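Troubleshooting log. The previous structure file for this entry was overwritten by mistake, so regenerating from the original sequence record. Sequence copied from the archived sheet and checked twice against the printout by T.R.
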Amino acid sequence: MRRAACLLLLVLPGRAQETRDEKADWTVLLYMTADNDLEQCAVDDLARLMAAPQSDRVKVVVQVDRAEEDEPTDDANYSGDEVAKLGNFKGAKRLLVRKDDLKELEDLGETNTGDPKVLEEFLAWGLKRFPARRTALVFWNHGYGWQGYGGDESHEEDMLSLPEMAAALRAGLKRAGLERLDFIGFDCCLMGSLEVMSACRPFGRVMVASEELAPLEGWNYDAMLRAMAREPGMTAPALAKTICASYQDFYEKHADADVREQAAWTTLAAVDLDKVADVGRALDALAARLADGLKDRKGWLALAKGRRSTEEHGQDEDPVESGYLYDLHHLARNLVGLGADAECAALQRAIDSAVLFRVAGADHPESRGIAAYFPPEEELWDEEYRAASCSAPWLKLVVAFLKSGAADREPPVLSKLAMSDGVATAKVLGDDVAETYFFFGGKDGIVGMVPAELRDGTLRAPFDGTWTAVGDAKNRIVMPVGSYERLKDGKCRFEVPAQYRAPDGKEWKNVTLKFNESGKFAGAVMTSAMGPSVLKIRSGSKLRPFAVEIAESNRIVRSPNEDAPVLTVGAEGIGIVRAALPKGTARVGFIAVDHSGNAAAVETEIEVGK
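Regenerated output below.
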């Protein structure tokens, strides 16, 4: 139940009067969904907001909903910390940010931030209570692209879908008597997609969001408010550029080396929402033209290869949890030559015009600011996308592509494996090979798996009795690599699927471990029903590999392995290292996976350690 509040308004020397009549340069409304495993991050950001420079001409108003849990764990950032003079409160409050303080405006009690009515009420109330020449709404929490935003654990992890978000924005603005916001921002993962932008387009002028995951530290609010205090009359594009530039700067120059590592995979872009419709029309035209090419296998394979070569965001080593969001600018470039060159160029021009400013780390050199959903296989398709899709021709193309791919159930054909002078080779037949791996295994199945070179139809991998392992100089275990990105210099970035257990935890959880081209640990990602989030692997944590096999369905299958060796993370952390394999008989082999997800393997037994 919402509590009634009696407000006594006083005019104090040196402080602007906070009434409905005062019109500031900016009102920034921050919708902070923290009734979940990101609560500590919310507490930290509130502290940053208070510490930042303030201006009476800029009003920052927060609605924050906190979690019931008090005790943090390694995989859930709950908090029992006090916030300013408000103590360790529970439920939701509306707060006005002031220098070194948070003024409580309303205590809302328990709320469901996944209820569009709650967002509508906050938007209408905030805009009427704090009128301004320019207005902003920032969403703070988990993001899952077209699947939505948020996740309220007190209400069954309820999220705001894109249709719900649009309805709340429409109703809230109408009640406030405003047509549009000047700025909409997402301090969240994966919201830099055309689907999200299209949903927000009628309600804002400029939007800032990330195509990729966002680190736990989020936006650089100090730099944002510092710039607004220095220039309260800044425009929405100027604010958006400040947020993007300071975001990159924050991670690249952070004092903590682990945080600096995350700079490589961060992205953020500012988009002119008035030009998003042009991007949508260009995508419609491209999709309609490409649909004609799907009538034969050649056209399908060309599109599959183009998709495969495109910058991917929201990747998870569990295929069911992956976001399958692909950068549209890069996709258009990779589809040149398929009979739709003019449409590809038009889509690239539309994106270049719509994106006002963007930043991207070294791991995402082709990130141009706008992604879209494009799953690789029919069994990974999410039927709920139909309600969130912003382009009927694109939806039709993706569905047709998946149906064509589903008709292919024949895996690649591999020749007998040969070993000579420490090099394994095998021939692979087929024009649609997407991934190739070299594996090591024993009687219990595949133990280690690394990328294999494929050139002119020949698979090749050196083998010297050592293998890629995860750990440190003293403790390490072999884990199968889940995916990789081969760089221009021949090096690879790795993602390793594993199971994780907190130092004092009992439950094993699925994670994806990221390693840069030097083998240094770059972060871990865990996906929940609310979406992916970054996980900090601390000393004392436990890691173990999955069991890997090729199932009768010709798919690579990973499953929990209770008998697997367990690595205890030491004070030095983890990285990619080389480990000598135990002496004895072992199996080595190649795996080839085609663009439909069909996998085939060939192997042989060898003696290790002789």
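The radius of gyration is 26 Å. Archived copy saved in two places this time.
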